[in-house]
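User: Could you go from structure to sequence for me? I need the amino acid at each position, not a summary. Structure tokens:
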């Protein structure tokens, strides 16, 4: 059930009306029921599987409140990460064995033939949202073990925390401190209603009007780079940078908007990342909840920055490489994560050098646009790995760019170049928090009028530019 469908609109309106019409103590149960139905609209068997994962995890985590048993924590982690490995990474595991051995059985086709003969199933299907709910359960278990969660939560509240439908499929990845207190103190006011509606409208514009209109043009070049010139490769990479930002931040806006309408404040996931003046700042503003998850549950436990310089650099590269692997079971994602880890390693001494030189403020401001351009360019180069079907396509695109290979322009070149400043404007509105503060100070009647006009503007854009439904990019992760 996609956020951009009429089915979801009807589902959400029914949930919203029911939620605020019943007594407060019944609302968690209603939200859990709605969330289970939301997931079941995709697959009933996997809904039962998901419920089983949540139930077993809750039973295993309960003793950790009173006893800090490392073996028990390991059991929780192996159970959840093993579930993730089987469904998401088993084929990559087979591919690695095949690449090393050359044996035909260790191919996707060879294993699928064996699986079909044995069970009647043609392949292993990736459950929706498995990466997100696995990380959420893992963080909860580790926080209980560390003593950071002292209150034992009921199965109902724990299940709602994992299943909560606005953020279930593609985040934000929530922590215990983000959510449980809001179950107890859940309330709504006019300001949250207004900001929720504004987020919904903004998310729809990003997703339906911008991201979905770029799909066919961008994919045409990524799937067949040999048919286009070097300019088309560059513009397609820019187009995917626009698309992935508008698609994923659009999902987050809609998720946060739905949460606000139900009285829940979900964490921000994007803070104007394309206006970052350093790669470190970029990852503090892009997919914030994943970046902080990798920092708190992988980078710091490995030793973080407290280790020797070489070990710190290794920890950084390993964390980002595994972060790339989290996105998908493909060599391209591993290369993408490894690339960004290396770039951060290179940037660390440059950042120290900049601090030691103590640039005057005017020079720092003068260089800011150049640094933003460089960071965005490096991110865009990374999309050649992130969106390509395999490494061979990535190398071919890089080759055609650096050799300035001739060829025709891409099918959406003009559209992409026109949408680039729009994308940066959207980043600016996220980056500059003064905008929301200014709106909050306006009289309520003015805010209501502006929101109404913005809603009409959104409807007009959707009616004019909606190209048809496309899944959100991060649904596949």
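Assistant: Here is the amino acid at each position, in order:
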């Amino acid at each position: 059930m996609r956020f951009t469908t009429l089915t979801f609109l009807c589902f959400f309106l029914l949930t919203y009306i029911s939620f605020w019409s019943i007594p407060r103590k019944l609302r968690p149960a209603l939200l859990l029921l709605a969330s289970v139905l939301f997931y079941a609209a995709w697959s009933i068997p996997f809904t039962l599987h998901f419920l089983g994962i949540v139930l077993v995890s809750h039973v295993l985590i309960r003793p950790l409140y009173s006893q800090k048993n490392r073996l028990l924590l390991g059991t929780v982690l192996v159970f959840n990460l093993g579930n993730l490995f089987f469904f998401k990474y088993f084929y990559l595991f087979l591919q690695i064995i095949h690449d090393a051995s050359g044996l035909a059985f260790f191919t996707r086709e060879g294993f699928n033939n064996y699986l079909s003969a044995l069970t009647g199933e043609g392949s292993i299907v990736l459950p929706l949202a498995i990466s997100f709910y696995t990380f959420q359960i893992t963080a909860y278990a580790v926080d209980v073990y560390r003593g950071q969660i002292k209150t034992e939560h009921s199965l109902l509240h724990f299940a709602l925390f994992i299943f909560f439908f606005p953020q279930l499929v593609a985040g934000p990845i929530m922590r215990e401190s983000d959510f449980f207190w809001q179950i107890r103190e859940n309330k709504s006011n006019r300001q949250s209603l207004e900001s929720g509606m504004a987020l919904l409208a903004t998310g729809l514009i990003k997703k339906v009007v911008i991201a979905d209109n770029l799909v066919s043009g961008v994919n045409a070049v990524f799937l067949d780079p040999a048919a286009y010139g070097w300019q088309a490769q560059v513009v397609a990479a820019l187009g995917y940078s626009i698309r992935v930002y508008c698609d994923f931040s659009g999902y987050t806006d809609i998720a946060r908007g739905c949460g606000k309408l139900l009285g829940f404040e979900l964490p921000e996931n994007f803070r104007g990342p394309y206006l970052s003046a350093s790669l470190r700042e970029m990852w503090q503003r892009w997919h914030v909840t994943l970046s902080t998850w990798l920092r708190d549950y992988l980078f710091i436990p490995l030793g973080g920055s407290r280790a020797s310089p070489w070990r710190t650099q290794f920890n950084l590269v390993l964390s980002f490489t595994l972060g790339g692997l989290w996105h998908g079971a493909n060599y391209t994602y591993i290369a993408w994560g490894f690339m960004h880890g290396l770039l951060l390693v290179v940037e660390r001494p440059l950042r120290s050098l900049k601090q030691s030189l103590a640039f005057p403020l005017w020079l720092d401001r003068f260089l800011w646009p150049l640094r933003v351009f460089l960071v965005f360019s490096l991110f865009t180069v990374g999309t050649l790995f992130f969106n390509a079907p395999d490494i061979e396509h990535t190398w071919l695109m890089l080759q055609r760019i650096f050799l300035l290979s001739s060829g025709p322009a891409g099918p959406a070149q003009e559209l992409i170049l026109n949408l680039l400043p729009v994308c940066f404007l959207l980043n600016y509105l996220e980056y500059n928090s003064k905008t929301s503060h200014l709106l909050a100070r306006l009289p309520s009647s003015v805010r209501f009028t502006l929101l109404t006009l913005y809603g009409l503007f959104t409807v007009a854009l959707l009616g004019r530019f909606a190209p048809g439904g496309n899944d959100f990019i991060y649904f596949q992760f």
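One structural detail worth keeping in mind: The chain is about 75% helix and 0% strand.
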